[in-house]
User: Fold this.
Amino acid sequence: MRSRAWRVLGGLSIALSVLLVAGSLTAYGFMRRLDSQIDRENVEGKLGTNRPAKLNDSLNILLMGSDSREGENARYGVEAGRRSDTTILLHISPGGENAIGISFPRDSMVQMPSCKTKRGVVPPQFGMINAAYSNGGPACTWKTIEALTKIHIDHYVEVDFSGFKRVVNALGGVEICVPRPIDDPKAELHLRKGRQIVRGEQALGYVRTRYVLGDGSDLARIKRQQAFMASVVKKATDKGMLTDPGRTYKFLSAVTKSIKADDKLTVSVMQRLAESLRGMSAGKVRFVTVPVQAYPQDKNRVQFNAALAAPLFESIRQDDQPPAAEPSPAPQKVQPVPPSQVKVAIYNGTRSTGLGRRTADVLTGRGFQVVKIGTRGPTARTLILYGPGAERQAARMAIAVPGHPPRAWSRGKPGHVYLIIGGDGAAVRALKPAVPKIDGEIRADRDPCTAQ
Assistant:
């Protein structure tokens, strides 16, 4: 039986690349033709109602790989059931400024929620994270990742491995770099040392082999997986690809025949995403692994390192739309005080339930003293008001929530600031970097030989 270790390496990188390359298709009008080739599933009723709130305009897409042996995949041997050996959460910042792919090791021991299936309801359980897919397919993995990270997921893309070779060939091959000559008859893999382009069977063998590269662990496999994805993204976002309609269509046609997605990932959604990604380049895409540590009860398993994982998840949740230009305190004509010295009352003047609380949570995380959260009648524009003696406090609030010049309010409490959220919103300025540095992260524009 062929090794299952390779099954999703190419597929997930392909799913990521299709989103980035799609930006060129709006100019060629091919989206609707390609859309009919995607297999879709309705998962909305399986996700439940207790989901994380959508805090901003970022986009989170769950990328999964399936080892199904049905149809074209039967040639790769017999496997009972389906599994997802690799799960990646692709986060695209508001405006398409940056993207990050977060890998969840399959051996992670986690608490999984109950899941609806065709056979009934699978109760909550503790086990390896990839069991979620076995329990209830993509919807169960989706629900599990949301429960673990508190990050709202918008869509999913699932990939099997039958189309791997034709997609790599449509790209014209992918660049890899190996530290030594490889001769692995079992994987049908024979490579010279160093930098080279792999296609077809060679590419399949490279992502399939497990023990002749790395130490055989899942974490080592993920590092190689991320390096391969980086090379695919780099090739797919190359100017030669993006400016050639024929090559672009050939590549995306091969991809869309190989993926499955939720039915909400429509043509219009893909086109809006494509527009937002027009400025994306490989240098703005990076890959990280959820920080983990040894699982005490089993040396072959890991668990999330909460102290390191929590800031990563929080940064993704709070990655908001940055302002058009860096705000400057100069127009305020006063020196802003630190956030810890600002007492602010927040009032929601919109019909968006919970917006005041969400904004308060963000500002509290930035060090502001939120002294009150309330509502008021519909307000067209967001206002920053301040009571006597709070001009410097208001200046700090105007930096955190740009675009709304502070105004004095004689009826305000001395030393207090009032943020009234109106119909034009109150986007909190993103802190940079939005996502903390993670040891071992890989950028898509890296030289594949630099890690050798």
User: Anything to note?
Assistant: DSSP finds twelve helices and 23 strands in the chain. The chain has two domains: 9-320+435-443, 330-421.
